[in-house]
Amino acid sequence: MSEIRTTLITGGNSGIGEALAKKLVARGQRVVSVGLEKPGWTHDLLAAYRADLTNIEQTRAIAQEICRDHAVDSLVHNAGIILPNLLPDAKPEDILMLAQLHLGAPMLLTQAALEGMRARRFGRIVFVSSRAAMGAVTRSAYSATKAGVHGMARTWALELAASGITVNVVAPGPILTDNFWGIIPKGSEQQERMARNVPVGRLGLREDVAHAISFFLDEHSDFVTGQVLYVCGGTSLVGLGP
């Protein structure tokens, strides 16, 4: 039987993060969630913290607190914001905010957990990126920082491989979450049109992404590192159309 591991999930209170947290807890694994809100459910294997990960000092403080209280074996950086704008309305400030959330926050959290991972010679770091890293209309800040995630993950994969720590990326396509419905009206013709443009004929579910993340977290996935897995229904091949 696999050892009981502890996974830190950012944004574990909703969407993909919540689906993953429930999946791991159901398997008897410990989960630590950190985000703007605590999960709306409780479990003996679930610990929850609240922090604004766009704030460097809050992130640094919560990272130290969590790693003092828990032996974090795995980190899933799932928290993200889109901030959509066409180029004429895009703001450099958005790039700075998303760079901290998508890149700075996981750096601080990983640094806090790294000593323990190295001591145990086991670690799993998984970033939740996006198919939009390949480019998408209205996604200047989002695409840029998500593409940055891929480069940083590959760098860490090289640096940490000898310590028994793998670093990988899951890049979802259109997934039915509150983030999605914050831009595309729920049940709208736009949503239906988007689903028809996905090669597999449907939009993704948060469980689709949680399933892919759990593969990278598995103890037997130690020969896979520095990879980007698109969980996108084929949209990384053809885009989403008009």
User: How many strand segments?
Assistant: 7
Biggest sheet character? 7 strands, parallel
Q: How do the strands of the widest beta sheet line up side by side?
A: 3-2-1-4-5-6-7
Report Rg.
17 Å
What's the pLDDT, averaged over the residues?
A: 95
Query: What amount of the residues lies in strands?
Result: 15-25%
Low-confidence stretches: none
EC number: 1.1.1.100
Pfam families: adh_short_C2
Protein name: 3-oxoacyl-[acyl-carrier protein] reductase
GO molecular function, one term: 3-oxoacyl-[acyl-carrier-protein] reductase (NADPH) activity
Please describe what this structure looks like.
By secondary structure, the chain is of the alpha/beta class. 43% of the residues lie in helices and 16% in strands. The chain contains eight helices and seven strands. The chain has helices spanning 15-26, 56-69, 92-120, 140-160, 178-181, 189-197, 206-217, 235-238, and strands spanning 6-10, 30-35, 46-50, 74-77, 123-128, 165-172, 228-231. Strands 3-2-1-4-5-6-7 form a seven-stranded parallel sheet, with helices on both faces. Helix 3 links the parallel strand 4 (74-77) and strand 5. Helix 1 (15-26) crosses helix 7. The chain starts with 5 loop residues before the first strand and ends with a helix. 43% of the residues are buried. The mean pLDDT is 95. Keywords: Oxidoreductase. Belongs to the short-chain dehydrogenases/reductases (SDR) family.
Lay out the secondary structure:
Elements: E1 6-10, H1 15-26, E2 30-35, E3 46-50, H2 56-69, E4 74-77, H3 92-120, E5 123-128, H4 140-160, E6 165-172, H5 178-181, H6 189-197, H7 206-217, E7 228-231, H8 235-238
Parallel strand pairs: 1-2, 1-4, 2-3, 4-5, 5-6, 6-7
